[in-house]
Amino acid sequence: MTGGRKTTLLLDAAALAAATDGITSHAAAHHDGVSPDGISQDGIAHGASFATPASRAESASQELLAAAPQGPGTLHLNIPIAHSRQKVSTWARHSGCSFTQRGNTLSLQIDDVDLSHCVLPLMDVLSGVEQNEVRAIFQPLNRDLLLDDYFGIDTLSRFVCKTLSGWLIDMMVNDRLTTVFQPIVRCCDASTSTLFGYECLLRSVDDGQIIYPNRMLDVARGAGLLFQLDLAARRAAIREAARHNIDCKIFINFTPTAIADPIYGLQSTVETVDRLGLRREQVVFEVIESELIHDVAHLKQILDHYRGCGFGVALDDLGSGYSSLNLLGQLRPDYVKLDRELMRDVHRDPYKSLIAQKLLETAQALEISTIAEGVESAAQCQWLQTHGADFAQGFHFARPGSPPPSMP
Predict the structure, then answer these.
(1) Which domains does the chain have, with CATH numbers?
(2) In angstroms, rounded to a whole number, what is the distance separating the alpha carbons of residues 336 and 286?
(3) For residues 69 and 163, is the Cβ–Cβ distance under 8 A?
(4) N or C: which end of the chain has fewer CB within 10 A?
(5) How far is residue 154's CA from residue 224's CA, in Å, rounded to a whole number?
(6) What is the pTM for the complete model shown?
């Protein structure tokens, strides 16, 4: 479009309806047991470091992050259900939003740079099911829609996530992600808390408040940025471990459902580890969200690539469901982590005690090292020592922090 005149392009309904829905409503995220009750709990305000300006350009060039849509322009909504179209058009009239209609498509004029003022009310107007039926595409003012724009047609629910993802994109592009470290100790001498390694836990800070991984993962999943976040989090963990000169094992979470190309993801990770001077054998990649894994062969391929380059592999949350127990036999990791909920009161709950004991025996028979999560008392430590667990982590030893908490 030319001449500076505001023009609304009415899209054919069939073109808008061609896109398919890929969003999932599942919002589970790995939770590391830290309650968000203040910055001092993680030590971020006192010890964490963010990347220098020189590294920001490098990070931005490494990954092309899809920018959150910004106005002004026209939001085209293909709404196949007549009742839903009526609700949106009624809302637009009452709110003073200018729109046109052609067939199933409503085209809303948006004058603000911030699209959230328009899209957020739509979340109240339409139910979740309706939002997933609506297809959305945004056309910036005075610009024709490009071929790439049509490939970006998505559900309204995912479009809203993209609209609200600007803060996450900014954190990734400007390397504002950081890492806190929680110690993992040897159970054989848990009374002296001999350090074995650290789990690297994702964090960021926005306006003085800690941003926990749950929120970042939920937004990334909804906005289609899970791959970028997973990669950026791994790089942040490696960067921070190198900065603190950690020479023991480091456990880095990764979401296998975010890795479409294991070779590319591996190459990027290997380059970062080698460039920053860490030893490959000290790095263990920890599979999280195992309950979401549907393609075990794909995951095995990823883990085989990582093992082939000298990294270790851990499976998280053993005992939290059938899926992780089934994966134990198929993936045969180097380490398994017993779920924190299973560990809660394991020393006085006979049912949990029996289940945990059998899991430990199974791992020992398979020569897989075991790590108990969520250990918060000396009684739990004693139970783990008695039943042959190899390692443990939890608030009983130390809370996550940066710099890494030192052990006595």
Answers:
(1) 39-65+168-392 (3.20.20.450), 69-164 (3.30.70)
(2) 9
(3) yes
(4) C
(5) 10
(6) 0.74
